[in-house]
Structures are given as structure tokens and as C-alpha cells.
Amino acid sequence: MKTNYIKTALLGTVLLTSAAQAQQFPLDNLKPRDQRGINIFENPKDSVTTFEKLKVRIGGAFALQFQGLKHESGADQSVPATQLYDIGNNFNLPTANLDLDVALYDGINLHLRTFLSSRHHNETYVKGGYIQIDKLDFIQKDFLSDFMKHSTIKFGHDEINYGDVHFRRSDNAYTTQNPFVGNYLMDAYATMIFAEYYYRRDGFIGMGGITNGRLNQNANGGTSPSLYGKIGYDKQLTSDLRIRLTGSVYNTANTQRLDFYDGDRAGSRYYYVMENAAATSSANFRSGQVVPDFKNKVTSFMINPFVRYKGLEFF
């Protein structure tokens, strides 16, 4: 009986190892989710294909964060002190993600991210996903191939491509892209229903997008289409020097609720920081964040320079 247990355990280990190795294959025009994806902003664009058949790549992320912060209130005698939480030093709630990347067809990929556990919710829920089209061969072989050689079409309900900061932030448990783990206090990040068109050639990047500006489609109040775009240049000039400069704009004509700088479903990385101890726990998932609460007509700009020389980076 003991021998059978050992054989079963060994067989299970081999199968799990084989499955893990099988999931490491690259998918065309989707950036890697591990350390190889650091400093990759938009998904890459390459007309060379490795597609053979439908493939599914399963991945994930797990974050266990130790928090050692202090906070105080009432330094200004003219403002009454707020009773803050005694946060102390301790480990925060572990968070986890599940990623599914699917090569559906030659030039068509699907991405789906699920938050298995997060600050905001105890239960598992879908963060968002999108379909990316880099070829139109599903219509006809080499259909508009010269046009699609430099073009990408992307649509779904996921983070919109406004600015470059959202590429270098922590997305719940996915923290390897963020050198600081904690995000900016004012977080330029939003998940919305969107459609985007990209044109990339010789380092030039051009993108135009449209969205309804909403995270929750059932929220009350009317809305109108929001338009956004990005233009920039990204080039590896030498083996040691890379430069990137992008400018982004976001404009909404009219909406009663705009989930812009307020679209993180996972919640803040700073637990109970600067929170009133008298408040309910459900209000604390945005601890330490600055939420501008934009409404109605909004126009926003962002400019992001990025320079990397050997191992030195400026962003």
C-alpha cells in the first residue's frame, strides 16, 4: 500500500511538472506575464506567426505583502484630529490572480484576468478581458495583409490604454511590473467597455479608442461616448539605449458618473492608511488613494517619457 502511495505521488508530480512546462509556450503578440514582460508597454506587434492550433496558456500571480507604515492626524491645530486605525506592522491579506491567454486563430488572441482574492472582494470575480486582432485571415487568407501588417484591433471590457502608468502598476496580485509595489495615490487606471485601433511602424505608435466611460454598466445616470488616444515613439536606438515618449488624451462629453482614476476593482495596496476608525470596513478598500470623482465634461492629458540606458531607467 505504501509503495502504491509513493508511485501515485511520483506520477502526480510528473504530471504537474509536465503541465507547468507545457504552459510556458509563447503566444504571438501577447507580452509575457513574467519578468520578461518588464518594460514592455503595449502588446508586441509581429506579423510572423507561430500559430498551429487553438492553445490556452494558464498563468497567475500571488502577492503576500508586509506593511510597516505609520500615520497621524491633527498636526494642524486648526483642524480637529481624526481617530485613525492602529495599523501596526503586519502581513496584509494575500491576493491572487488567474490569467487565461488563448490563441483562438492565426492573429486572434483572447485575454481574461480573474481576481481570485482581493482587497475589495472576498469572492472570486472577473477583472476584465479583451480580444486582440492582428490578422484578418479568419475572413480570407491574407485579407488586407498590407494594412494589418502595422495594425491592431482590440476590444473588450478591460483597462483602457490611457497613459503609460497603467503598464507599471500593481494589478491586484500582479506586482512584478511595479518597482514600488504600491500604486500612485492618484491612480490613472480604469476598466471600461472599449474598442481601440493601433498603428505602429518604425517606432511610431498611434492609437485611437472609444468607450462609454463606465466600470459598472448598471450604474444610474446617462452617458455619452468618451474618446481617447495616444501618440508616441518607442525605439531601441542602440544595444544600451532605449527611448520612449508618449502623449495621451481622454475626453468625455457628458456622463453622470465617470470611473476615471477610480477604476481599480481590487482596491488599494495601503491597508487602512489615513482611514477614519469610525468608518465602516466596506469604505476602506481605497485607503490612501486620492479619488478626484470626475463627472460630466472631462478632458485629461498625460505625457510619459521613458529612458533606459543599460541598467538605469527614468520614467
Automatic annotation (TrEMBL):
<feature type="signal peptide">
    <location>
        <begin position="1"/>
        <end position="22"/>
    </location>
</feature>
<keyword id="KW-0732">Signal</keyword>
<protein>
    <recommendedName>
        <fullName>Phosphate-selective porin O and P</fullName>
    </recommendedName>
</protein>
